[in-house]
Amino acid sequence: xxxxxDGFVWLGTSAGLFRWDGQNLIPFEAKLANGYxxxxxxxxxxFLDKQGDLWIGTSTGLFRYQPASQEIFEIAIEEASTEKSxxxxxxxxxxxxxxxxxxxxxxxxxxYIFDNKNQVRISVLKNxxxxxxxxxxxxxxxxKNDSIAWVCSNNNWFELNFKxxxxxxxxxxxxxxxxIVPSRLHFWNxxxxxxxxxxxxxxxxxKSWKLSKPSNLPKNYISKICWMIEEDAKGNIWFNSAFKIYxxxxxxxxxxxxxxxxxxxxxxxxxxxxxxxxxxxxxxxxGQWGGIEKVNLNSLKFNFYKINPEAKENSPxxxxxxxxxxxxxxxWIGTRAGFYFLDQIGGNLEKVAGLPPSRNxxxxxxxxxxxxxxxxxxxxxxxxxQKGIYRFNPKNQAFEHYRTGSSIDSLLxxxxxxxxxxxxxxWFTSIKGLCRLNVKTKQEKRVFPGVN
Length: 452
Hints:
Elements: E1 2-3, E2 9-13, E3 16-20, E4 25-27, E5 29-31, E6 37-39, E7 43-48, E8 54-58, E9 61-66, E10 71-75, E11 92-97, E12 103-107, E13 110-114, E14 120-125, E15 138-143, E16 148-153, E17 157-161, E18 167-169, E19 173-175, E20 178-180, E21 184-187, E22 192-197, E23 200-205, E24 211-212, E25 229-231, E26 237-241, E27 244-248, E28 255-258, E29 273-278, E30 284-288, E31 292-296, E32 301-305, E33 320-325, E34 331-335, E35 338-343, E36 348-352, E37 365-370, E38 376-380, E39 389-393, E40 398-401, E41 413-418, E42 425-430, E43 433-438, E44 443-449
Antiparallel strand pairs: 1-2, 2-3, 3-4, 5-6, 7-8, 8-9, 9-10, 11-12, 12-13, 13-14, 15-16, 16-17, 17-18, 19-20, 21-22, 22-23, 23-24, 25-26, 26-27, 27-28, 29-30, 30-31, 31-32, 33-34, 34-35, 35-36, 37-38, 38-39, 39-40, 41-42, 42-43, 43-44
């Protein structure tokens, strides 16, 4: 789904392309520049560029819509060197933006780079390059600089040079005589990248392609599967190895490890971290099965908040499923047992009433959001039997079932978001489909049908 500069909402589906004009959702049938009409089938991806043009990736090719002229142009995917058409209707599965307003287009036939004149400048064809993998298998994608990107998949990875069109990779990296493939990556500079693999966290020299372990490893370090790599504002690299969390500064070489210690608050409250967040002041928050850890980056010490000290570590009260910082710097916490509010000044953790109890591990608050008036809302996981959304009422200090006067009140919601251009408009998805709600007028419109 994309919203263009004129406020129209575009929805790509397996049934075609639709446009919401503020009143109705209309199947978009456009006239091509050559006068022919075009219906879009199986829209795979939508991308809005800096000029406001809408790029449409479909099962029958690539198209560009210009709102100014209201014209659709079919983008011919051609090999740059011969200008010979490779495939008249490749399946376009992903569109990304590159530096200098170029477009990176993934198709089932290969990778294509379009210049700012919408001409194919580089093509990397699948049938000519065994290193190419289409988007369905991509586990990570990142742009290193103005000429290099990496693409990782479940069984392959490669480095793509935007300027020359050359690929370096498609090869596996060896560690202890075993071939490993990165599933997470983080570029530190032009020479060094950090990668997460099933065999652990590694430092990769981009010039020699040699792997190494970070310096100053603690004695208790065990190299296990790494699924998280984050960098904070001070340049510390945070990563996991199995159930431990590490903070490593590549510049100073300082290395701190955090794990579960019995009766010791300088460490993890539980050996499984669910989430990582850096707040407005640069503090690190770790949400876990056993509580919350707050790390002050000046001292690198933990402040430990166990929601219920008397309960077991994996109890619903101590399983933190969502952390959110509102515009007034307040910290809102969601657990399997309810809502909590953290007063950062006094350090007090207070239970906030309002969430119906549940013993199901899949039923929990999974998203906080804030409207233009500073009201705090929370959506429950779609597995929850309680329907609708909840809003915090400052008068009675509780979350209340928020009555919108719409179908939101009686639906299990998959997702909800506020319109960027008009904050009075809420978009939400459920078994009913995609709906648009004006929270001021209470008018609701089913934009795309789901299950009746």
